[in-house]
Design brief:
Elements: H1 9-19, E1 26-29, E2 37-38, E3 42-43, E4 53-54, E5 58-61, E6 70-76, E7 90-94, E8 106-109, E9 113-116, E10 119-122, E11 133-134, E12 145-147, H2 155-163, E13 168-172, E14 176-182, E15 186-187, E16 198-199, H3 202-212, E17 216-223, H4 227-240, E18 243-247, H5 258-265, E19 267-270, E20 282-286, E21 289-294, H6 298-316, E22 321-323, E23 326-331, E24 343-352, E25 355-360, E26 377-381, E27 393-398, E28 405-406
Parallel strand pairs: 6-7, 14-17, 14-18, 15-16, 18-21, 23-25
Antiparallel strand pairs: 1-13, 2-13, 3-12, 4-11, 5-7, 5-8, 6-10, 9-10, 19-20, 20-21, 22-28, 23-27, 24-25, 24-26, 26-27
Length: 416
Amino acid sequence: MRDYDIIEVDEALDIVLQHALRLTPQAMPLIEALDCVLAQDVFAQEDLPPFPCSSKDGFAIIAADTSNPRRLVGEQTAGYIADLHVTLGTCVRITTGAPLPPGADAVIMVEYTQEANGLITMQGRPVPAGADVRPVGQDITRGQRVLETEQRLGPQEIGLLASLGYTTVLAYPRPRVAVLSTGDEIVEPDAQPGPGQIRDSNRYALMAAVQRAGAIPVSLGIGQDRQDVLTDMIETGLATCDAVITSGGVSMGELDLIKPILEGRGEVHFGRVNLKPGKPLTFATVDRKPVFALPGFPVSSLVSFEIFVRPALRKMAGQRLILRPQVPVTLAESIQGDAGRPEFHRVTLTPDRGTYLARTTGMQSSARLLSMVGANGVLCLPKQATPFHAGTTVTAILLESPETEPYPPRWAVPNA
């Protein structure tokens, strides 16, 4: 295994995003396309509404007709066309969404009428032509571009497509992401750990993070510290998924086998990053598919995922905005700096007079998953031997906010 130079966070992120390629668009059913990104412009094939119709319950009339009362000659409801015609001195009862009968050019709401013995008396001011009538193409005209490529499909976009007759749409698929935990010391959560063993939290946390990023997690299980076993499991992930995430086995010990496996199978782009936590983070591509070899400590793996993997998965899914917002925050308490590396410190952020107050989640050990619980922000602290005092303004990533930054990034990640 070769020795890797340590690189800065922004350089590592740039490498990851250069190699995280958009997936090939595919036709997918509308019901499966929610939150996916369009890979085509969408044009209306017809007018909406396709016929003039009433926007209210009332009576279809000729606006210029001065007859009052008028004779009721029938009823037009939604869903069919009645054999009716409005002439001077007559009107037709009409419901919301129903086609406007021939001859009529306006609708008077039922609230402004009185009905007796088949006659409808109009009350109040006369209504103008076009009143409460939705003309052909009022909402959308044939040939109009209604959705643009790279637009994210929300419920309203899905509904619009359905209204235009689309049942499938060309979009970027959600990446399928294989997740593998490694280590002889790892057992399933429902197992009783033996001496020297611990339950697997990384795979479950990372699969949840994958799902929250809009991708599809695929569990590869737990891999023993044997090169043949881990190689086969990684190959399975590469064969069935668009990206692979492993946790553990990326340090410098004899049983840290992930780097040598990736070196023999693809290209390792970096093997150490200047950040805390997550220094041994490794990134490779195999057959153009990204492989993220994350550290084994649970906090290190989740922080690394947030900084590097989540943006990559969003880019692969065709998203334009792939980075969370970074904002200035004020420390509510002193936080000890780290003299050796920039630190991504977990905090709770509370709004305060137009900014945020940041409070540490406590001991920041890479093994202490509790430091991530309740954290809605991560401070980007440059390396510093002395404390960051209360009242100091620093930068924080908002962990619960939607992405606002495109690629290439404009992050103020700490380097020195």
